[in-house]
Amino acid sequence: MPGFRQQLDTLERWRRLPALEELDPPGARVALTFDDGPDPDATPAVLEALEAAGARATFFLVGEQVEAHPELAREIAARGHAVGMHSHSHVEQDQLSDPRADFDATGAAIRRATGLDATFYRPPFGRFSEDTYAECLRRRLAPVYWSGWGCDWEPIPPARIADVAVRDLEPGTILLLHDSARYAYRSSALPTAQALPDILAAARQRGLEPVALGP
Ligand SMILES: [Zn+2]
Fold first, then answer.
1. Considering 28, 34, 77, 90, which has the largest number of Cβ atoms within 10 A of its Cβ?
2. Which domains does the chain have, with CATH numbers?
3. pLDDT digits (tens, 9 = 90+) for 130-142
4. How far is the CA of 63 from the centre of ligand 1 (A)?
5. What is the pTM of this model?
């Protein structure tokens, strides 16, 4: 795909940023994380793929998506996955006029839909503002970045998503994936769901158990 190699080179540089994060201690495990949902497009297929493999994961939910699809947020929690916050409407954080209101609205939407208080936070685009970072800590939300990804915000096929993701799988990897295409360059997130059987099989072949974030 034209431009893909160049995109990967850019991603390789981002990969070396200090924000990269692994499970601590790494252990024989990996954490699959899904951002931007819940979304009827692909969240049900992602949940089915995880269920089929007996795997647990973490979903970083967008407040407006939870308000639009509370039943899907409830389903994520009911199946034993962890939930984190990923802002209310996925805007750049330095565009937020009122970060506290954004956290309040997102947390309330998740609580209404799932009965859970989110304990993790991942900023949209992986970029905090000073205000939102301080707010995150004030609320005792653990900031979570990643150490691997499937490059699945791009319109690439499932086999490519799996290739890119599997390359990154090692003890402690936190893998960034998406169960919604709403804020991405592609029109559907289903290719991510379709890549999951291969990603989960590769993790297990390496002796790595896919776990939800948590204690
Ligand atoms: Zn996102």
1. 34
2. 27-149+159-168+176-210 (3.20.20.370)
3. 888 888 889 999 8
4. 12
5. 0.90
